[in-house]
Amino acid sequence: MKALIAVLGGDGIGPEVARQGARVLGAVGQLFGHAFEMPEALVGGAAIDATGAPLPEETLALCRRADAILFGAIGGPRWGPSAPVRPEQGLLALRKGLGVFANLRPVKVHPALIDSSPLKPDRLAGVDILVIRELTGGLYFGQPKGRETRDGHERAVDTLEYHDYEVRRVVALAFRLAKERRRKVTSVDKANVLESSRLWRQVTSAIGKENPDVALDHMLVDTAAMRLITSPASFDVLVTENMFGDILTDEASVLAGSMGMLPSASIGDGGPGLYEPIHGSAPDIAGQGIANPVGTILSAALLLRHSLRLGAEAAAVEAAVHRAVADGCRTRDLGGSLTTAGMAGEILARLS
């Protein structure tokens, strides 16, 4: 098949890991007889420096034409919270512009990496979680927001807002994917305090009644944060709103031993999906060639599966990663010495 895959490296280690993800996609194309065109485009701080905007119009236009987007990471101290234009605005605008409302973050623990996690090995046995984070609503997009000075004091406002249809579409997706797994959905909210969470729970309960073959649990976010550490294997599909999902998935990354190991997929009802590792731009190690590319390479596998519908090719990439890790291949974050390119090379050597 032919496919157009936009590659947005971004900032920090983003271009380094995105380069290796594209390298693996190119190898998949050669091995399986596909033609992948992979043009690069600016986003984030790099785009601000070059154009003044975190998401240039030409980048968004390319992404809308593409079959999928492979994304690196954005941000850095040069464009801090006080900057008038910030890199993160580019990613939020891209998600909104593409209509990707669900962020899928699978969390699995490789048996060879159990000792890399701070948790006891017995708590990591059987961990296989799919976290689904609502991506285009909630605090990050609510209006009004802003700051003002009154009577000598500063006041900041952010608005947490959800519509019923925003909840319904992401929760329906969670139930659909749960039917391909262990048929259990845990919906995370703060319904004892927040009106938006009470709406979330109401809509989720209704969808649960429409899907009696899937077990549904409601869980407060503070309890979920605790259970992710004390009994992570008890979760199957976990679905939650934007900010809760952002925080919980970063917490869940310690289960796998390193944030560098975990991929994500952002998808909507149609159009291109957005695929990126869950880690940030890590400016402290940028340019050293030591970043872990596995999260990006596994994101490329999700790209193959969800956007290009190439399930066998996705499985081949995942199997190659599994074999490389099982054989002891490690980057520095996991106690090894392989470079970013070296780790990708070990994975490519096992791709078949």
Discrete helix count = 12
- Quickly give the CATH architecture of the largest domain: 3-Layer(aba) Sandwich
CATH fold descriptor of the largest domain:
Isopropylmalate Dehydrogenase
Strand content: 15-25%
CATH superfamily of the largest domain: Isopropylmalate Dehydrogenase
| Radius of gyration from the alpha-carbon trace, in angstroms | 20 Å
Strand line-up of the largest beta sheet: 2-1-3-12-11-4-5-10-8-9
Structural class: alpha/beta
Written description of the protein model:
The chain has twelve helices and twelve strands. The mean pLDDT is 96. Helix 1 (14-32) crosses helix 10 (294-306) and helix 6 crosses helix 7. It has 352 residues and is an alpha/beta fold. It is globular, with a radius of gyration of 20 Å. Helices cover 40% and strands 19% of the residues.
Keywords summarizing the entry:
alpha/beta, Isopropylmalate Dehydrogenase, two-stranded antiparallel ribbon, 12 helices
